[in-house]
What does this fold into?
Amino acid sequence: MNLKLILIFVCLLSTAKISLAQPGDNDTKLAAYYYDKGEFAKAEPYYEKLHKQYKSKSYFERYFMCLFYQQKYETCEEIALKQIKRDPLDMDSKFLLAMVYEETNRENEADALYKGMIDDLDPVQSRIDYLGNAFKQRGKFEYALDTYLKGRELMKNGYTFQLELADVYGQLNQPEKMIEEYLNLLDYSPSYLKTVQTYLSRVIDFAEEPAKTDALRVQLLERIQKYPEADHYNEMLIWFYLQKKEFSGAVIQAKAFDKRKSLNGKKVFEVAQVCQLNKSYEAASKAYQYIIELGKTSPYYSMAVESGLKIEFTILTDRATWSKDEMSLLAKNMKML
It folds into this structure.
């Protein structure tokens, strides 16, 4: 055999190895082309071939869906069971099998499959998250709830799915339990204060949903009574009053918190600014006056004096009439800054 023939043979052998190692471009492209067009009968044989040859999960799922859309449920069930046997931890294949059960009026078998997935969970947060999200995406919120509660039992320490449970309770229209889970997140870590406030502001319309608003108020007061030294609940109550636009209540709570923590006017000044921004000048003035009475040792003293005078100026100029003496006195006070 001459050198030229040997080279040709080596090239052919290499080409053969490559073709066995990866799917043919034509098969892959044709399969995707027909599938994307919704021509599942034409796509089916290509994905069947690719699935059998490479055992890839992506090819399996495409092959399964081709069969499912053609209502070939018996074959769907058969290949799903094989896939689950091959990889018992594959949750996606179990959901596909459950689709067949539900489509063929075998809800009891689907329910048993869902419960089995929950019962078989291990204390691995990523898998608990994955299963819970899978149920939520399919609108199966009761099963999602069971998943996260099971996860809480398994993950005895650390984060125990407070945000996920709050979301599910919201979907199930159980606002009191939803609020409870958001507040439970603060028990896990007070560093989530802003996160909890953000979520609550999204799920509660403080102007239009009195029942939810009152439920939050009650739970906050209960927790403050139970954990009087927990600063985050006091801060939540101040935030609550601001959301309700009950600015006088926010100032009262801020003063009490400021005194107890010896904050030297910090929290009261923050609340005063919110009141002023919302044109609640009376509440803002009382807050600034509290800081002024602390004296010049407070780092917020000068800003409180200045802001208080600005409020006086705004109130005065908003009136229909004012006296020259009033304006002169205000101008004199502002010059003294």
Q: What stands out?
A: The CA atoms of residues 64 and 281 lie 66 Å apart. Residues 1-23, 325-336 have pLDDT under 50 and may be disordered. Residues 266-337 form one domain.
